[in-house]
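TL;DR need structure tokens for one chain.
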Amino acid sequence: MKVFSSDYTFDYSWEEVSTANWRKYCPWNNKSTHVIAVDTLSRSVDPSTGILRTERLITCHQTAPAWVVSLLGGGTTSLVYETSYVDIAAKKVTMCSTNLTWSNLINVRETVVYQPDTSASSPGHERTLFNQDARITALCGGWQKIKTKIEEASVERFGENAQRGREGFEAVLEMSRRVFGEEKEKQKMMQHA
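>> reply
TL;DR here they are.
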């Protein structure tokens, strides 16, 4: 098993980040053009905790390294199953995802957490911590060299994709702030008219 881990701080409030998270794969994000579809499978609120639980199926156009495709076969469409938990009381979003495509050959389990950065935030300048952890395990038993090569290539690709994902999400956050700000101004003008 190989692990990819990343921490980042967004210069946006937790409220902005947790709201924009649902638009992460929209046209404002030119870094996520590989995402073909995001289908919500279920959504519910736990009446005792108030936690919103959402299950989604994410369909991607994802090319594997040529040597992996030649060795294992496969197509260019991959599926990812994601479960997310939004705890408004604790101000915490937790997203857990796993690959469905090639899951008999490789297991990728990713956990992402968004929480307010209480150490560096100040009134009017709130920030949000982002923690990403992915555990990648090749399941081709007995072939240690191939297993290690697949895990190493997967961690490298995961890191590249994670960087693009953060850049794309920054664009979504920026556009969300601008659009919501414009909408608030319109509402103020309508109230004073």
